[in-house]
Amino acid sequence: MNTFGHTFRITVFGESHGKAIGVTVDGVPAGISLSEDDFATDMARRRGGAGRGVTPRAETDRANTISGVYRGFTTGAPVTILLENADTRSEDYYALKSTPRPSHADLTASTKYGGYNDPRGGGMFSGRMTAAIVAAGVIAKKTIPEVRLSAGLVSVGGSADKTKFAEIVSRAAAAGDSVGGIVEIRAEGVTAGWGEPFFDSVESMASHIAFSIPGVKGVEFGAGFGAANSTGSNNNDAITDASGTTATNHDGGINGGIANGNAIVMRVAFKPTPSISRPQQTVNLETGLTETIAIGGRHDACIALRGAVVAEAALAIALADLALRDRSRRTALVADDIHDITGR
Amino acid sequence: MNTFGHTFRITVFGESHGKAIGVTVDGVPAGISLSEDDFATDMARRRGGAGRGVTPRAETDRANTISGVYRGFTTGAPVTILLENADTRSEDYYALKSTPRPSHADLTASTKYGGYNDPRGGGMFSGRMTAAIVAAGVIAKKTIPEVRLSAGLVSVGGSADKTKFAEIVSRAAAAGDSVGGIVEIRAEGVTAGWGEPFFDSVESMASHIAFSIPGVKGVEFGAGFGAANSTGSNNNDAITDASGTTATNHDGGINGGIANGNAIVMRVAFKPTPSISRPQQTVNLETGLTETIAIGGRHDACIALRGAVVAEAALAIALADLALRDRSRRTALVADDIHDITGR
Amino acid sequence: MNTFGHTFRITVFGESHGKAIGVTVDGVPAGISLSEDDFATDMARRRGGAGRGVTPRAETDRANTISGVYRGFTTGAPVTILLENADTRSEDYYALKSTPRPSHADLTASTKYGGYNDPRGGGMFSGRMTAAIVAAGVIAKKTIPEVRLSAGLVSVGGSADKTKFAEIVSRAAAAGDSVGGIVEIRAEGVTAGWGEPFFDSVESMASHIAFSIPGVKGVEFGAGFGAANSTGSNNNDAITDASGTTATNHDGGINGGIANGNAIVMRVAFKPTPSISRPQQTVNLETGLTETIAIGGRHDACIALRGAVVAEAALAIALADLALRDRSRRTALVADDIHDITGR
Amino acid sequence: MNTFGHTFRITVFGESHGKAIGVTVDGVPAGISLSEDDFATDMARRRGGAGRGVTPRAETDRANTISGVYRGFTTGAPVTILLENADTRSEDYYALKSTPRPSHADLTASTKYGGYNDPRGGGMFSGRMTAAIVAAGVIAKKTIPEVRLSAGLVSVGGSADKTKFAEIVSRAAAAGDSVGGIVEIRAEGVTAGWGEPFFDSVESMASHIAFSIPGVKGVEFGAGFGAANSTGSNNNDAITDASGTTATNHDGGINGGIANGNAIVMRVAFKPTPSISRPQQTVNLETGLTETIAIGGRHDACIALRGAVVAEAALAIALADLALRDRSRRTALVADDIHDITGR
Questions:
Q1: How far is CA C62 from CA B184, C35, C66, C183, in A?
Q2: Which uninterrupted H or E stretch holds B210?
Q3: Which of A148, A279, C138, D83 is deepest in the core (most CB within 10 A)?
Q4: pTM for this structure?
């Protein structure tokens, strides 16, 4: 459903062209300083707005804190953030109602909800919802301040040459087309031991939320798919000291689903924006006949551009949840209880 | 934790060298025929046992049904399956207690649990646990009999040439090394509409459980990472009729997280088995000094070989859960309630 | 945490004197007609406002639907309702900050959250939060329209004479005191079979949410505590026809945690409002010395008065959740699958 | 479903006359000493077996630990306990298959599961399942060793005179009848602050699991239903020192759903055993006609007798879960972060 997380738990709501979208973050520890300014940087990163590949829709995205903060600190109550929807131009989408956009959720949403879904701007399936993820990510980051997160594009439209990214996106936009891209997210400072067996491994939790970001079609950790092409002797991370430092980080900071203290490295593949102005074939649900459509409106030519901060927020949320879960277990182990791993 | 799923929900337990491993499957609809023979085929697929790349450990893996079945049919009560651990040779592992195996969970498990974890054969982090996933997968498949699942290796050690797979694995085994591989799983017959927004998309649920399989480092759907290298005009799946049929399936049967009726296509990357007999560097936790180890015992030279049936079971479990969830919603929409998608 | 329910799932947020309180209802089937007017009746029932025993705080409680409704019907997306907080007079409470009110959450909240909790009007522990429950209850009732719910006071201040209730409350209010009361809620039209084993029985789910209502200290079903004083021959409900009709309803419509088709009967005990203007002993947390306080502000002299509609909403929410859960199982049983109960 | 708890989480499985019943306890901290002997005392308390009011069925109930314990300590992996079913006499029940027992789950279970439920001895609706609760309770108690739990009968068949209990039960048994009873459970040493808002209050969690015990029809805390007959000035618990000590404990150790450091006091009402040998009216599902039955087999004349240790286990499980949850929050508040409650 629209809730993710076990102990640090977020619930998103809203639709692209409704009154507002928002997120409720439950399980936030009390005593964390939080102001609306804290959201500004990541909201601005997501908004982009300048470059060629990003929709000119003006989203001010001032985070309106409804609950859970008192005199500048979190209270232990759920924190609800509202983000108003301004500058919606639903008329852009009206023409598409009977002609579902290829590779969009228009048809699946209508099928699932018997036609009752809100079709305006993709409704709750819109990329607009990622603003709620970014807002929740800000709170997650403040919950685990020891972790340093960063994210950036490592590939756009098949090229890994960062000097070409802007040009590739511009060219696609000019051609009424779009391109995909790959984002790499790194989390340094993760405490060894975070991650729960069996199903709530770091990879399971992080991929779960990453795949909820619209347009994500692949997730890998460390060497990822590259590890499948390798040998054990090349891929294994040799351990070089008693704290678990390793010579390489092909495992992306995770063994057996549990953080090993190295940087968590996750890569997320975004498909090309499905909304393109070039003509595409779809079906007219009223006539039952195929039809060619060209999608107007404002769209990113490369959703991976905004995707970096969203995927970073997603990883932050997963880690905040696993951090709080590990703590409840950790405190049960006092110093003199620590067992000799050799079992003697 | 050790539970996955919302409405069709599995809980695994056990350790590699303990008395038994097992799984409790809750939410199984009443009235499904189920006998211990139903488990035989998939258990045999997982066991392998013949080829060079698979450990010779004899796991008979007779599924012992403890509960939830009466006179050959499921009763609506939780189904618990026990799989005894026979032929365990813990002595193989004793030498490794103070020298954690590189790229294994030995060190993270010890860190997380203060040394109290069961180290024998990797304890609950062992690939042995995948037998419980396979058993649960059998029940999942019988819950959604309309879905036809298949899985196979599409790449081993970097080669996509299936005629070379056996040779690549044999050569790695002979060299005391191991290789990775990629498994592709297909699910045909999935009802359009399965999948829940926002966080419980088909991809989110399927990747969550797939990443809990030991050794999995990457998951992708449809064109996956390849989509990131493509353009919208090439990657979009043109809709060719009113039932949602598409000319291509780059989206892997999923739009906006919701199944569109096409085959679900998932690929899972397995890293090379970390247990290799070639010498590797690790640290001796007693002395604090680095040390070179060679791992004896019986190990698969390519865990992806067994991984196919396990990943197929994982996808079946995720789909069974989403199928039951969709049903509760579906029945609320009676025929004459179905809205005109055009909103008129 | 602040979420209840499995398939029909509500999340509440807000504080008594913050900007707003609200509730997100997830899992609402698409296609249910819902307008802001639908909330008016139950909101008015909760508000009370006329009688002596109810606080004169003016809560307009217009339900502001933020999401999940489009053109008058639910869309399948989460429905978020905001209720603004108007007419808050925080100054009433400031005097109490260092002197926690007896039998209130002031001290436990401060202990739990290290003093960071929002103390104004009880923060998230306020009876104000029950407006969110009532709003969610309205949606729950529309989800299970076949069920007819009613609730009423059966006892006030120890008297079961309904003609005396108003007088008892008035007298208590005049004396600066308060009284408790018992609410009985009935749900007719519940489908036999709702309720999940083992832990999610009708009683377990209904009591879980009922005990989250501030001031509730007891919950019973059917004969309840009275059954403990009875004998099997008197308490058993004789079955009088094949549809399961019973001569009596001492079990309150539930056997083995599963609805049997009779009316569900739940009684909820509310303690007297702890806020009273009569002097009480507490401790001054600044001085560490005991102190006598008299609580000003506006308070209900009998929270059970408003409690009826709140407890009714709570039962509706629990039943909506169990109804949707039962449906997912039900649809797996087609007519010719129905087994002969005699097992022949 | 068959799972209870959020961080300390139990899953029960099995049927009265199947191979075994059992419980998986997940979230148990590593490093707790646990042997099969630890279960003996509570298992014996539940078994009873001597007195007139308890069924002579011989349940040896040796707790067979399948997983999660290594060299005498919990490992952090799920602990699964199996309890074999010996001495089952299913033939006792066969005569009842077409004549559902009044006030039992026979008819509701058959309705819910379309006749596929296991009817032998009540299947999963049997009181036999409470042995799994008791086993899980043993682990819960070892997880919160600072808490001292006790439970005892406070009323049998309407009498509060403990010297009469044995006689009342004997007389009912001799008459082929049964009686109800009330159990009071106390938990001393609970840390102030346990309990989660809004829905996971101590009362909500404890009542949820208590109402899953077969035969429970009422739950109250502190003054409970008695509080509804009282006034604020009499019912409020005056605070007598800065640690929160109170002059009375009408709130049963809980304010706003959060433990206040006083003893938690819960009372649980058990209805009379519905299985009685006196003649009762039911319906014959084959003929559709009413019929008179007398229930043979072995049955407790007062299930409240065994209910004490079961309800105590239930409270222990709820508290263990809340304790682990509170810890994850607690550790986020370091000493110098503790806020001045007065907000200065």
A1: 53, 11, 12, 25
A2: helix B202-210
A3: D83
A4: 0.96
> Is D79 within 8 Å of D65 (Cβ atoms)?
yes
Q: In this structure, how many other beta carbons lie within 10 angstroms of the beta carbon of residue B293?
A: 18
Q: Does residue B117 carry a pLDDT above 60?
A: yes
Residues C306-334 pLDDT 10s: 999 999 999 999 999 999 999 877 655 54
Question: Is B31 in contact with C333 (Cβ distance < 8 A)?
Answer: yes
Say yes or no for a CB contact (<8 Å) between B114 and D82: no
Nearest to D328 among A71, A197, A328 (CB): A328
Residue B95 confidence (pLDDT) above 60: no
Q: Per residue in D17-34, pLDDT tens?
A: 999 999 999 999 999 999
Give the helix ranges, DSSP H, for chain C. Answer: 40-47, 91-94, 106-112, 130-143, 165-174, 202-210, 232-235, 304-330
Minimum-distance CB partner of C29 among B7, B27, B332 = B332
Q: B131 near B83, Cβ under 8 Å?
A: yes
Contact C279, C292 (CB under 8 A): yes
Whether B201 and B258 have beta carbons less than 8 Å apart is answered as yes
Other C-beta atoms lying within 10 Å of the C-beta of residue D49? 13
List the domain range (segments joined by +) for residue D335: 3-342
Q: Name the minimum distance, in Å, from the CA of C221 to any CA of chain A.
A: 31
Q: Is A297 left (phi over 0), alpha (psi -120 to 50) or beta?
A: left
- Which of these, A175, A179, A166, A181, lies nearest to A277 by C-alpha position? A175
Ranges of residues in chain A whose predicted pLDDT is under 70: 49-59, 87-96, 330-344
Strands A69-70 and C64-67: unpaired
Q: Where does the pLDDT of residue C50 fall: very low under 50, low under 70, confident under 90, or very high at 90 and above?
A: very low
CA C291/CA C281 separation, integer angstroms: 6
pLDDT at B91 over 60: no
Number of helices and strands in chain A (H, E): 8, 15
- Count structural domains, chain A: 1
CATH code: domain of residue A287? 3.60.150.10
| pLDDT of res. A244 | 85
**Separation of alpha carbons D208 and D203, rounded Å:** 8
In this predicted model, what pLDDT tens digit does every residue of D246-282 receive, in sequence order? 999 999 999 999 999 999 999 999 999 999 999 999 9
Query: Coil, strand or helix: which one is A171?
Result: helix
Contacts of B277 (CB under 8 A, 6+ apart): B176, B294, B295, B296
Q: What's the CA gap between A186 and A188, in Å, rounded?
A: 6
- Residue A146 Cα, gap to closest chain C Cα (Å): 21
Q: Which helix (H) or strand (E) holds B264?
A: strand B264-270
Angle, alpha carbons C310-C315-C318 (nearest 5°): 125
Neighbouring C-beta atoms of residue D152, cutoff 10 Å: 12
- What distance in Å separates residue A71's CA from the closest CA in chain B? 32
Whether residue D344 has pLDDT greater than 60: no
Position B110, amino acid: S
Among all residues of chain B, which has the CA nearest to that of A98?
B342
Query: Radius of gyration (Cα) for chain A, nearest Å?
Result: 22
Q: What percent of chain B clears pLDDT 90, i.e. is strictly above it?
A: 81
What is the predicted ipTM? 0.95
Cα-based angle C2, C8, C12 (whole degrees, multiple of 5):
25
Inter-chain residue contact B2 with A343, CB threshold 8 Å: no
How many beta carbons lie within 10 A of that of residue C19, not counting itself? 17
Single out the residue of A242, C21, A199 nearest to residue B125, CA to CA. A199
Q: How far is A194 from chain C (nearest CA, A)?
A: 22
- The type of residue at A49 is G
**Phi–psi pair at D68, nearest 5 degrees:** 90, 0
Q: Is D112 in Cβ contact with C193 (below 8 Å)?
A: yes
Instruction: Report CB contact under 8 Å: C333, B6.
Output: no
What whole-number distance in Å separates Cα of residue A177 and Cα of residue A171? Answer: 8
